[in-house]
Amino acid sequence: MESVGLIPVLAVSAVLFVTGIAGVLTRKNALIVFMSVELMLNAVNLSFVAFARQFGTVDGMIYAVFVMAVAAAEAAVGLALVILLFRNRMTVKLDDLDIMKG
Question: How many domains is the chain partitioned into structurally?
Answer without folding.
Answer: 1
